[in-house]
Write a structure and sequence with these properties.
The protein is of the alpha/beta class. The protein has 3 domains: 80 residues, OB fold (Dihydrolipoamide Acetyltransferase, E2P); 161 residues, Rossmann fold (3-Layer(aba) Sandwich), CATH 3.40.50.300; 98 residues, Ribonucleotide Reductase Protein R1, domain 1 (Orthogonal Bundle). It is 35% helix and 21% strand. The protein contains 8 helices and 13 strands. The strands form 3 sheets. It has a 6-stranded mixed sheet, sandwiched between helices. Strands 3-2-1-4-5 form a 5-stranded antiparallel sheet, covered by helices on one side. A two-stranded antiparallel sheet has the order 6-7. Helix 2 packs across helix 6, helix 2 packs across helix 8 and helix 6 packs across helix 8. The termini are far apart. About 4% of the residues have low confidence.
């Protein structure tokens, strides 16, 4: 049976828990980790084994929580009474959400594995976008190429990926042949949590099964026409890998709308942002202004035009998000002001009519 240690309960987490939830007596809450989160209910791994608990809080897979057993006779169900601050949060903007809310995909992740199937054309824009979100999460991104046994363009695709990843470690794997798994195992290390993200059919579940050595996740067929697969993973779930390391599989994502990812944008496109300082004009729009260092770099081939357009698109996306957030915040303040003013008017009317005569 798996234990809390199998799910990444290291001395570091133990220390954080002791600091956040001091234990003056034996009735203090116990540590637990969320290994799966469904609506209104989470599956926890506790010191004594798995436990399902109902919750209305914003708790996600990967969270470390404080669990209270409440009483000895079992009359009251166990309850989550606190959550450790997250040291990393992988999130994206909810699709088609006018209120601009974030969807948290996982918490307390050490490594984000961006899974790229090698048997289909590489989408450089998608890779860059996902790396931006991965860097911004607070975790360290990796690029994991899968299905290396299914292509004759192996060297070409690997070279392209290494170039696009710009310094991020790239691992090439074949779950079927067992290639690259030992190197990936070693990189994950003990006590770390690796989250895998990528499109449906990228081979995430197959890769997990190969890493853990048994069928921990269901796998589905990939359509021959477009290389896309069925969503065999329907919820984010932690899977122990051994030595305290943990894998998090996620459902395939069709798109990755960014959420407050300026730090990630700088990590992936830092070379472009560095050029801004060399432009002749401080307010250079990097279009047709004389002395623009960005345009000069593009024309000389130092910066790829496609990459610049990818950066600009994500930059505009984040600016639009911040505008909507600002408008929403102003509306909330306006509603609060009107509510307070209305309550004050009612109180004044009550005082005039019933107290002051």
């Amino acid at each position: 049976m798996n234990t809390l240690l199998d799910y990444g309960f290291t001395d570091r987490i133990r220390g954080l828990f002791s600091y956040s939830f001091p234990s003056p007596d034996t009735s203090s809450p116990e540590p637990a980790r969320v290994i799966r989160a469904d609506r209104g209910r989470v599956l926890l791994m506790t010191g004594s084994g798995p436990l399902q608990v109902e919750t209305g809080a914003s708790i996600v897979t990967g969270d470390w929580v404080a669990l209270a057993r409440n009483d000895d006779d079992g009359a009251l169900p166990p309850a989550i009474v606190g959550t450790l601050p997250r040291y990393s949060t992988l999130q994206r903007k909810r699709a088609h959400d006018p209120l601009s809310e974030a969807q948290v995909l996982g918490a307390n992740i050490d490594l984000v594995g961006v899974v790229v199937p090698i048997d289909r054309p590489l989408s450089a824009n998608r890779l860059e976008r996902t790396l931006v979100a991965a860097w911004d999460s607070g975790a360290v991104p990796l690029v994991i190429l899968t299905k290396a046994d299914l292509t004759s363009r192996f060297d070409e695709v690997v070279a392209q990926t290494v170039e696009r990843a710009r310094g991020v470690e790239v691992f090439t794997t074949s779950a079927e042949a067992g290639d690259g798994l030992d190197a990936l195992h070693a990189r994950i290390g003990s006590g770390s949590t690796l989250a895998l993200i990528g499109p449906s059919g990228a081979g995430k579940s197959t890769l997990i099964n190969a890493l853990v050595g048994f069928e921990a996740q269901h796998t589905g067929d990939v359509r021959a026409g477009d290389g896309k697969g069925r969503h065999t993973t329907t919820a984010r779930e932690l899977i122990p890998l051994g030595a305290g390391s943990v894998l998090m599989d996620t459902p395939g994502v069709r798109g990755f709308a960014l959420w407050d990812a300026e730090d990630g944008l700088e990590a992936v496109f830092g070379d472009i942002e560095e050029l801004f300082r060399s432009c002749r004009f401080r307010d250079c729009a990097h279009d047709s202004e004389p002395g623009c260092a960005v345009r000069a770099a593009i024309e000389s081939g130092v910066v790829e035009e496609r990459r610049w357009l990818s950066y600009r698109k994500m930059q505009r996306e984040l600016a639009s998000l911040h505008r909507r957030q600002s408008v929403a915040e102003q509306r909330r303040h306006g509603q609060s002001f009107h509510r307070i003013a209305k309550e004050a008017a009612l109180a004044k009317d009550y005082r005039n009519r019933f107290i002051e005569g």
